[in-house]
Amino acid sequence: MVKIEKFLQNAVFSSTMLGNLINDLLDLAKFESGTFKFHNDYFDLIEVIEQAFETIRFQAERKEITISY
Fold first, then answer.
1. How many whole angstroms separate alpha carbon 18 and alpha carbon 24?
2. What is the largest CA-CA distance in the chain?
3. What torsion, rounded to 10 degrees, do the Cα atoms 33, 38, 43, 48 define?
């Protein structure tokens, strides 16, 4: 059961990263065409940092690296 859960976690992680990459490429295309609009909004920096750690957590686990914050 653990192998299946790990596989599914990796699949979700990979699909999320692919979605993020596609969105970044679309934003870059908008920026280059001059249609990208910047929004000056407040955001939760702690949440952004936690998401960054979550993004690299799977890669770190594969290399047996422990991340703590």
1. 10
2. 49
3. 20
Burial class of residue 4, CB neighbours in 10 A (0-12, 13-18, 19+)? exposed
Closest by Cα among 14, 2, 4 to 58:
14
Q: Would you state the structure tokens that stand for residue 47, as one six-digit string?
A: 């949440």
Please indicate, yes or no, whether the overall pTM of this predicted structure exceeds 0.70. no
pLDDT, tens digit, 9 for 90 and up, residues 16-63 = 889 999 999 999 999 999 998 888 889 899 998 988 888 888 788 888
Residue type, 48: V
Structure tokens at 62: 């594969």
